[in-house]
């Protein structure tokens, strides 16, 4: 069905103080937003995520995270810092991150991009051509140049020197270009540098201190949304949250691995991507 306002010309006439002029039709704006959303690579299971449909409940840190997410959307593109959503699996971190991305893309018409961290690294690795440096152009450039990038599940990637260098290259380039990034991570930000499986141990010292500079840390806990039929009710979530808080926390193994410890000692390094000779 053709657009009733412009008959699919994408322009419509408006009378302004008696003067007839043309302006972009609303349908053109919607088309532009749809094209940008498609380019953002949001996985189908998250493509309806928005903050208004996110079911929240009485949980102070979660509500703070949601407030900060809304503030980020309102302020974009004038944002000093990105966001880092931290907490156990299933508490809606990806939902919140994607909701922000979707809203920024469709309302502010920004070029946004979503990547699961591990699949991004796999893509870079598998498409890299050492002669043409293809993945630098085809995969890395949109990642470092996106006006807003979501990197989901930071720290899940298995650490190697190549992974560390590649991640540091992406994150440092975006930081230097003042482009905000929203991360999610299942790894707690534990101040003890020897704590096992902390964010610091997973991403290394360099990346961790960069994250501190470029992101607001929003750490929260809660019940697993996947334990409920969709959509869960606030009451049931609040109830499950009270029950979870009453349970003792499982003890983490005390010390980091030797590789993680070694990485914590790594100092500063230059901004360089080692290329795609990767995977070991
Ligand atoms: Zn139209």
Task: Sum up the structure in keywords.
binds zinc ion, 280 residues, 5-stranded parallel β-sheet, two-stranded antiparallel sheet, single chain, Rossmann fold, 7 strands, alpha/beta, globular, 10 helices
Which structural class matches the secondary elements?
alpha/beta
Poorly predicted runs: none
CATH superfamily: P-loop containing nucleotide triphosphate hydrolases
Q: What small molecules does this complex bind?
A: zinc ion
> What's the mean pLDDT score?
89
Q: What is the radius of gyration computed over CA atoms, rounded to a whole number of angstroms?
A: 22 Å
CATH architecture label name: 3-Layer(aba) Sandwich
Look at the structure and give the CATH class. Answer: Alpha Beta
The main sheet comes to: 5 strands, parallel
Helical fraction equals: 40-55%
Summarize the structure.
The chain is α/β, with parallel strands linked by helices and 280 residues long.
Describe the structure.
There is one protein chain. The chain is an alpha/beta fold. It has a single domain, classed as P-loop containing nucleotide triphosphate hydrolases (Rossmann fold). 43% of the residues lie in helices and 13% in strands. The chain has ten helices and seven strands. A five-stranded parallel sheet has the order 4-5-6-3-7, with helices on both faces. The chain has a two-stranded antiparallel ribbon with strand order 1-2. α5 packs across α6. The longest helix is centred in the first third of the chain and has 16 residues. It is globular. The termini are far apart. The mean pLDDT is 89. Bound molecules: zinc ion. The site of zinc ion (ZN) has 6 residues, from loops.
């Amino acid at each position: 069905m053709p657009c009733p306002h412009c008959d699919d010309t994408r322009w419509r006439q408006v009378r302004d103080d008696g003067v007839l002029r043309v302006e972009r039709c609303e349908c053109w704006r919607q088309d532009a937003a749809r094209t940008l959303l498609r380019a953002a690579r949001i996985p189908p299971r998250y493509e309806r995520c928005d903050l208004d449909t996110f079911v929240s409940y009485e949980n102070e840190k979660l509500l703070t995270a949601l407030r900060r997410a809304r503030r980020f959307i309102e302020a974009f593109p004038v944002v000093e810092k990105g966001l880092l959503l931290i907490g156990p699996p299933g508490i809606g971190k990806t939902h919140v991150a994607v909701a922000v991305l979707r809203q920024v893309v469709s309302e502010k018409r920004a070029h946004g991009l979503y990547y699961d961290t591990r699949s991004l690294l796999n893509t870079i690795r598998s498409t890299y051509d050492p002669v043409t440096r293809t993945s630098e152009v085809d995969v890395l450039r949109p990642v470092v140049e996106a006006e807003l990038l979501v990197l989901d599940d930071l720290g899940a990637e298995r650490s190697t020197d190549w992974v560390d260098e590649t991640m540091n290259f992406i994150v440092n380039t975006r930081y230097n270009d003042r482009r905000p990034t929203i991360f999610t991570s299942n790894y707690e930000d534990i101040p003890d540098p020897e704590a096992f499986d902390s964010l610091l141990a997973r991403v290394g010292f360099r990346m961790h201190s960069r994250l501190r500079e470029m992101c607001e840390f929003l750490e929260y806990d809660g019940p697993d949304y996947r334990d409920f039929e969709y959509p869960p009710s606030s009451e049931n979530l609040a109830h499950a949250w009270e029950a979870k808080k009453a349970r003792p926390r499982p003890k983490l193994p005390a010390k980091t691995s030797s590789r993680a410890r070694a990485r914590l000692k790594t100092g500063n390094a230059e901004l360089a991507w080692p290329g795609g000779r990767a995977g070991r």
